[in-house]
Amino acid sequence: MGTPIPNRRIEAMSSGSSEVRPYKLTPEELAALPDTPPMTGKRKKQIGLGNRDYTPGQRQKGRTIKEEPEIKHIPIGKAVSLTVQQAKAIMFLLQPIEGGWTEDELVGEHANAPNDWRDEAAALNGMTLGDLINALYVGMDIKEG
After folding, report:
1. Could you tell me the pTM of the whole model?
2. Cβ neighbours, 10 Å, residue 135
3. What is the pLDDT of residues 88-112, one digit of tens each?
4. Where are the beta strands (DSSP E) in the chain?
5. How many other CB atoms are found less than 10 A from the CB of residue 80?
6. pLDDT tens across 114-124, in order?
7. How many CB atoms lie within 10 A of CB 121?
8. Which of 28, 59, 98, 132 has a CA positioned 20 to 30 A from the CA of residue 18?
9. Nearest of 117, 44, 50 to residue 86 by alpha carbon
């Protein structure tokens, strides 16, 4: 059926809400309903809006702020040797201009069509996906010549 489109004329013609009409199910209608398990009160803490009498120094009184552990990331892989043209192509595609790509988007594009690069990025044609990933996330050694 779809979503109704709001129309000011139709809204203005409405007479407002109707009254609530209570209805009690008959025993036959109750018997036709599927069995459901009874609700149990497992919730121990009532949901509330918190302490309305909050003072700015209150948070530090009972709690200590844990320092975040330092994450040490050691890349697993090796730096890839690239030509100057390949390195320039990667840097061209990652330029932070409108329409520039992130590393993940560049990997996705290369995975979809590894030999369809043109113009400034033509040097990436034939590069393996693993080499491109290692170049982006581990590092690249640029070889002259």
Report:
1. 0.45
2. 23
3. 888 888 887 766 778 888 888 888 8
4. 80-83, 140-143
5. 21
6. 888 888 888 88
7. 19
8. 28
9. 117
